[in-house]
Amino acid sequence: MAAIVAGKVQTPDEWKREQGMGPSEVLLRDLTLNDQSNINGDSSKEGEKEVDVDELFAEELPGWRGYIEWEDYPDKRAEAAAMLAKVASTFPPPPEFQLGPIPDTNPVLEGVRWKMWHKALGGPLKSIPEESWLRVIQEKHVDMLHLLQFPYNGEPPKRLVTAKPITPNPLFFVRNHGGIPDIDPSKYFLRLDGLVKEPKNISLADLQNEELFPRQTSMVTIQCSGTRRIEQINEYAGEGDEMINAPWAEGAIGTAQWTGVSLKKVIKYCGGLIDGAKHLELYGAETYFKHLEVQNYVVSVPWSKVKLNEVLLAWEMNGEPLPKIHGYPLRVVVFGYIGARSVKWLYRIKAIPKPSQHPVQSKEYLYFNGQVGKHNQLYTKGIQIQEMPVSSAIMEPLSKEIIIHNGSISVKGWAYSGGGHWPERVEVSPDGGFVWYEVPLANLSPKRKFAWRTWHIDLPVDAEGWLELTVRCWDNSLNTQPTFVRSAWNWGLHVTSSCHRVKIYSVNKSKKDTRERLELFEKHGIPFAPLTRPTEEFHIQEEPEVLKFWEEHDPRDVED
Ligand SMILES: Nc1nc2c(c(=O)[nH]1)N[C@H]1C(S)=C(S)[C@@H](COP(=O)(O)O)O[C@H]1N2
Ligand SMILES: [Mo]
Question: Which of these ranges, 267-271, 287-291, 300-304, 553-557, has the smallest mean pLDDT?
Fold first, then answer.
């Protein structure tokens, strides 16, 4: 990479750089140096590996495709880490999608390094990226927006996010950190160990046996803490890993009826907890790469949450068997917490004294103060995100749409609050947040302790031109949302809960002049969009009319 010294070398994309529109290498201006040169690390080295890995990284159990156990085998982990360390420097850097343009493709991002990590270890991991993509094609709706091909991250388009208060399974967003295991339910069992009185392996059939466990069905919203991240990205760039910080819009949220057993009952079945156990560590079967280390997907929830019957082990989603992509045969659903705790392909639960040390719990999903960034971030400076705050979003109209209307605009969206709170009031503003109209209660879907409410309103709009539609929600504790993205921007780009804003161009046909102008467009066969196209086909005002006006009002100057 050529070093660029400010003012000396002009690149073809200089203009774009000056506008902060890319390209991907960020210029760095270090005022503490005399020589203000750009520092861009370039570390391409050759690495090689040639190991027989089929056995080393074999799947742990028959019938458990895609499950390689890492947590039990420190030596195997060390071997894998060493292999990755050798080749890591030959891999490309993460794609720049925050300072550079977001690609126009679908999938938006490919996950090149994630695929390469799997291939680099080889063995059963080698074909995981392709198999997982096939599963996406099989199980998800054709209209899904694929943010990241592998590990798969995808959300429904806005018009489908809130089309129904219960999200149909094929449209439910997917957030993966690795491949999609394919586990034979007849071979499946859940391992319970750690600080439980009687460690056990429990088969799926036993979990589903109503003589052993009462069945529970709950309507619960799962929201990723990355939902609406794109708004933070559009404000300022933050940490930029394409998987960890996928550029989600407002669709990384969904609501389903989940059926399974309460984890509390399962712990009881194991004789309860041993003194000192305060958290339950939840293990997902797929392989996860983090900082060139290899592991399973592991997080934890506190026992105090489990005790409330708010942690469900679910095998059914909306009355159907859990889709493979959503964690078949068994997943966790943690009510009112960030999605990250709702572990899919659950294979183990371990009772422990402190929250999990695993990276997804202790190094990701951290909520930093606004002045924390690359220069000073520490894991211990972030709040581990658990309960989601109150949030809401507009799903219709779309940003930058021209809306031709008769004095009111149909606005639709969702509102949600985590931690056992629920939306009580949703308000929509046509002017960026001065005047607020309340969504009539009849236009909100029914309230539930752990679910979103979808809503719609015919918003009175008199003004024309560019307007900013804004929404905010008040939950049952009268919590509401920060006003601007800037108010709660954070380095990890998590929990975008500020008032969602959509810029629209209002054309109010109930106004006579506007109506006549639209008729003129129609008469000349000119479409109104694109908005930016100058009107050349007719005079927007005829000369006699202009002269008549000038007779009555001096056009510009005044006499002494
Ligand atoms: N095993 C496993 N469980 C997981 C994840 C994962 O990558 N692996 N992602 C988590 C995150 S971050 C979210 S937001 C939810 C998303 O659930 P969904 O993909 O079923 O919508 O799953 C959680 N459970
Ligand atoms: Mo998430």
Answer: 553-557
Q: Ligand 1: which residue has its CA nearest to atom 21?
A: 174
Q: How far apart are the CA of 129 and the centre of ligand 1, in A?
A: 17
CA 184–ligand 2 middle distance (angstroms): 26
Per DSSP, the three-state class of 385 is: coil
Give the Cα separation of 344 and 245 in Å (integer): 19
Residue whose CB lies within 8 A of the most ligand 1 atoms, among 172, 224, 286, for a mutation test: 224
Q: How many helices (H) and strands (E) does the chain have?
A: 12, 25
Task: State which residues have CB under 5 angstroms from ligand 2, the bound ion.
Answer: 175, 224, 339-340
At 249, is the secondary structure helix, strand, or coil?
coil
Please state, as a whole number, how many other Cβ atoms lie within 10 Å of the Cβ of residue 557. 5
Residue whose CB lies within 8 A of the most ligand 1 atoms, among 68, 161, 172, 176, for a mutation test = 176
Q: Which residues form the pocket of ligand 1, taking CB atoms under 6 Å from any ligand atom?
A: 172-177, 222, 224, 284, 286, 297, 326, 339-340, 342-345
The pLDDT confidence band at residue 33, using thresholds 50, 70 and 90, is confident
493, 232 Cβ separation under 8 angstroms: yes
- The ligand placed nearest to the CA atom of residue 492 is 2
The listed CATH number (2.60.40.1590, 2.60.40.10, 3.90.660.10, 2.60.40.650) that belongs to domain 390-480+499-560? 2.60.40.650
Q: Burial of 262 by CB count in 10 Å (0-12 exposed, 13-18 middle, 19+ buried)?
A: buried
175 CA from centroid of ligand 1 (Å): 5
Residue 497 near residue 482, CB atoms below 8 Å: yes
- Cα-Cα-Cα-Cα dihedral sign, residues 248, 254, 260, 266: positive
Whether residue 85 is predicted with pLDDT greater than 70 in this model: the reply is yes
Torsion of CA 352, 70, 176, 293, to 10 degrees: 100
**Residue 468 Cα to ligand 2 middle (Å):** 29
What is the widest separation between alpha-carbon atoms in the chain? 99
Query: Hey, where are the domains in the chain?
Result: 1-38, 64-367+380-384, 390-480+499-560
Q: pTM value?
A: 0.92
Contacts of 254 (CB under 8 A, 6+ apart): 167, 171, 172, 173, 221, 222
Tell which atom from ligand 1 comes closest to the C-alpha of 284.
1
In angstroms, the CA 508 to CA 510 distance is 5
Instruction: Select 64-367+380-384's CATH number: 3.90.420.10, 3.40.50.300, 3.40.50.970, 2.40.50.140.
Output: 3.90.420.10
